[in-house]
Amino acid sequence: MPFHLPLAELELGQHLYWRIGNLNLHGQVFLSSWIVIGVLLAFVVLGTRRMERDPRGAQNLLEFLWDYIRDLTRDQIGEKAYRDWIPFIGTLFLFIFVSNWGGALIPWKLVHLPSGELGAPTADSNTTIALALLVSLAYFYAGLSRKGLRFFEYYVDPIPMMVPFKLIEDFTRPLSLSMRLFGNIVADELVVAVLVFLVPLIVPLPVMFLGLFTSAIQALIFATLAAYYIGEAVHEYHH
Amino acid sequence: MHSWLLLAEAAAPKGGLFDLDATLPLMAVQVVLLTFILNSLFFRPVGKAVEEREGYISTSRAQAKEKLAQAERLEAELKLQLVDARKQSQALIFQAEQEVERLFREALALAQAEANASREKSRLEVEAQKTKAFAGLDTQAEKLGALIVERLLAAK
Fold this sequence. Notes:
- The structure holds 2 protein chains of 2 kinds.
- By secondary structure, chain A is mainly α.
- Chain A is built from 6 helices and 2 strands, in the order ββαααααα.
- In chain A, helix 1 packs across helix 2 and helix 4 runs antiparallel to helix 5.
- The termini of chain A are far apart.
- Chain B contains 1 helix and no strands.
């Protein structure tokens, strides 16, 4: 590239490899995820330090978040089983949300890595597939632990002919969950990077705001779908 | 400078957008751990606080409702009492008015009777004196007549 701006450099699919034994790790993903987790934990610890009945300061925001997550979970999973899944759904939502926004708002470019670059942890397919597989495990676990073998009646609902479709769904769900999140975040980062590369001033700003919007929406979609799948797994059929 | 970041960066794989490796399970473990940590640091305490407040609000609401109902009941009772008292007082007033009327009539009747009696008495007295006076007048007139007749006869 003859024209080289310090802030505009496109790197796709390059990773900072860590080698532990025989295993390869994407170092930049873990570094940024630790920052994201650190921010989350710091906020949570600060907000819950002095809990009072009349909330003050960060407690308000935390309670708002909790309320929001509870409503989301209750709407999708139903009154009976939603309680156990608040932490999981909430963690998914918060982790993805803070990851996405962190990827967009934290000036990662100021840190130079030998290879790859820091960014949203959710812009790495490993992360999104891990999250999606966790969701799969979660809804199988939810269904089996709550309904036992009756969980499988979901596959023959409403008619036994549905079995192949429902089986396929078990594979397409994690695929679509992970690829949707991954694609959106990567595409957003790419668009912003390309625009910054072309016009480094002002022009990328609307796209950046749009990116923030999609980031939040993606977190919400992921959490809602996860809750919906769990809700479907614990749903009681009355014939 | 970044040597600590390159934990033995030997034979780096080619990379790529869909380069799946041990990052995936480790990230999953990390997220599960985060779930448990957030559960104990965030979801449980905040949920407890919110639900305690909700409970507090609903019980105080129920209490307030109960108090309101009690107040309304008392108000109705007192209103009833008030109506009763008003009725009683009206009855009392009516009674007292009747009593006054009766006393007034009695007194009036008594006074009238007394007046009638004394008028009758004085009338009788006047009558008697009149008859007496008339009687005296008659005798005197007779006497005078006789005297006049006597004198006339004597003058002849």
